[in-house]
């Protein structure tokens, strides 16, 4: 019965998508309709062919973990990471050498199209798959329960990656709302909402049916990130389609209200997607790799409640010196400064978890990655509140200093903890005794670390220089430098930035090779059976 319902749904979706492709008002919508039609038609055919077949193989035992979807998540995380880092290097080179915006690329592969592709590929494709992968792994182990919902976990994985494909192709074809971190148009947003609700249902259902009475703190962070991102996504993307057959939509909010909602969303996308979610990863993988309990469980709970209460108020600090009332931006600034304390409490808690195991920093390159990620988390969560102060913001805002800040957090904190999680998970998911090469992990660590330092330091230097050049006036009070002067002065730092990005990409390529050889290499060492992680 269930198979026939699926056949009907896939058939209707494929038919509607075909009609949408025929009546499409713009190329992006047409391409997306064709992608949806192809996916739905493929699922229709596959379901028809498998319907009525005798199910010979027994289903999984209820006490077994669903690690198939976690393995798929590890592969997707690695793939999208390579794609996002590669596009980042390309756009960095385009900024340093504008002639690389080739005529043949105009309209599809120029900087304006590739920049949001890079941003979303790293944050939502690489980071999002890392979070889904880690959530599904952590919630099963800490609850001693199989993922709730049967194949609903697979729906979340494939549905989310369909969203990534639709968003990425939309950017290249010019379908965008022009909202930072929220570029996909209305129908892609609707699909993501469906997938995200399913993600929440799977995670919450697993926690509810847990066999372990205590809800471990990592699950608190993971649940808060899922619920809050859902709220942010829905409110910030309220829009009215111009036509059901086109990608264009009109935002319900406008003017300063739109700006306020956008940066309430934007900063909390950083606060919950890139901070709370990855802290959930940290609170599981760091103790596991160190072989030590969390340094202070009480501090982790304080960290959680302080973080989720304070972060949600910090967004207006993005709008100093704008039409937003001063009281609102000051409120955001004050909460940002207060946020420094719980952020560093979490960093200290993670680092002090190594008490009694500090020697692992010398002997274990995976542990080294976790420690450096916590270091960058601490630096970023100090720099962010400092940059929110109005006087500092007057110099830093609209300059490359902000770019350096974002990338020291994204590459140093999110990237490094994700790399460490992948190195932790892959041998366990594919039942291998160890990674293929620990020396390759060390090479990855140093390439990534030096690459981040080059990237961030060059952007700090050029950002502060840029801000000071914009401010410089002569004896008569006239501006000394034109915008072109600042662009010319930044060239050496842009080259260093591209070099740092290239080193980071090289490290990720080494990681991909190492993980591939661990999982699928010819020499595969099967692990001795051990209790579930």
TrEMBL record:
Its EC number is 7.1.1.9. Pathway: Energy metabolism; oxidative phosphorylation. It is a multi-pass membrane protein. The chain crosses the membrane at residues 7-24, 30-48, 69-97, 117-139, 151-174, 186-208, 220-244, 264-285, 297-314, 334-354, 366-386, 406-426, 438-461, 494-516. The keyword S-adenosyl-L-methionine does not apply. It catalyses: 4 Fe(II)-[cytochrome c] + O2 + 8 H(+)(in) = 4 Fe(III)-[cytochrome c] + 2 H2O + 4 H(+)(out). Pfam families: COX1. InterPro entries: Cyt_c_oxase-like_su1_dom (IPR023616), Cyt_c_oxase-like_su1_sf (IPR036927), Cyt_C_Oxase_1 (IPR000883), Cyt_c_Oxase_su1_BS (IPR023615), Cyt_c_oxidase_cbb3_su1 (IPR004677). Gene3D superfamilies: Cytochrome c oxidase-like, subunit I domain (1.20.210.10). Its cofactor is heme b; Cu(2+). This is cytochrome-c oxidase. The gene is ccoN.
């Amino acid at each position: 019965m269930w198979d026939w319902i699926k056949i009907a749904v896939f058939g209707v979706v494929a038919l509607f998508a075909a009609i949408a492709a025929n009546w499409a008002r713009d190329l992006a919508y047409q391409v997306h309709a064709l992608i949806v039609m192809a996916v739905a038609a493929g699922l229709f055919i596959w379901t028809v062919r498998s319907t009525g077949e005798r199910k010979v193989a027994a289903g999984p035992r209820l006490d077994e973990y669903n690690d198939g979807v976690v393995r798929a998540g590890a592969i997707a995380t690695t793939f999208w990471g390579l794609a996002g880092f590669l596009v980042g290097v390309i756009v960095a080179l385009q900024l340093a050498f504008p002639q690389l915006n080739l005529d043949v690329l105009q309209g599809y592969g120029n900087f304006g199209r590739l920049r949001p592709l890079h941003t979303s590929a790293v944050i939502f494709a690489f980071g999002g798959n890392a979070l889904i992968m880690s959530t599904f792994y952590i919630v099963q182990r800490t609850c001693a329960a199989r993922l709730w919902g049967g194949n609903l976990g697979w729906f979340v994985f494939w549905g989310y990656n369909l969203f990534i494909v639709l968003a990425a192709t939309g950017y290249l074809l010019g379908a965008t709302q022009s909202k930072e971190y929220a570029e996909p148009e209305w129908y892609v947003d609707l699909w993501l909402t469906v997938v995200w609700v399913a993600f929440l249902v799977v995670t919450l259902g697993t926690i509810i049916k847990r066999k372990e009475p205590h809800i471990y703190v990592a699950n608190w962070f993971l649940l808060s990130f899922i619920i809050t991102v859902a709220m942010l996504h829905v409110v910030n993307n309220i829009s009215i389609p111009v036509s059901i057959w086109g990608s264009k939509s009109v935002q319900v909010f406008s003017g300063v209200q739109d700006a306020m909602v956008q940066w309430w969303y934007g900063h909390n996308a950083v606060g919950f997607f890139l901070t709370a979610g990855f802290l959930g990863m940290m609170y599981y993988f760091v103790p596991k790799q160190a072989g030590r309990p969390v340094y202070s469980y009480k501090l982790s709970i304080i960290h959680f409640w302080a973080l989720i209460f304070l972060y949600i108020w910090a967004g207006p600090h993005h709008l100093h010196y704008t039409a937003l009332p001063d009281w609102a931006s000051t409120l955001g600034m004050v909460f940002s400064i207060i946020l420094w304390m719980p952020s560093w409490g979490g960093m200290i808690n993670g680092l002090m978890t190594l008490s009694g195991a500090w020697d692992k920093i010398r002997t274990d390159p995976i542990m080294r990655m976790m420690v450096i990620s916590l270091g960058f988390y601490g630096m970023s969560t100090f720099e962010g509140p400092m940059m929110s102060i109005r006087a500092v913001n007057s110099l830093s805002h609209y300059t490359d200093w902000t770019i350096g800040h974002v990338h020291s957090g994204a590459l140093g904190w999110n990237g490094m903890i994700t790399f460490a999680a992948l190195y932790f998970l892959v041998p366990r998911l594919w039942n291998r005794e160890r990674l293929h090469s620990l020396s390759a992990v060390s090479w990855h660590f140093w390439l990534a670390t030096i690459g981040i330092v080059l990237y961030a330091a060059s952007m700090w230097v050029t950002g502060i220089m840029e801000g000071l050049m914009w401010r410089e006036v002569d004896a008569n009070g006239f501006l000394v430098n034109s915008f072109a002067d600042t662009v010319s002065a930044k060239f050496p730092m842009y080259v260093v930035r591209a070099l740092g990005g290239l080193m980071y990409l090289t490290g990720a390529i080494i990681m991909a090779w190492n993980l591939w050889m661990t999982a699928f290499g010819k020499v595969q060492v099967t692990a001795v059976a051990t209790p579930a992680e």
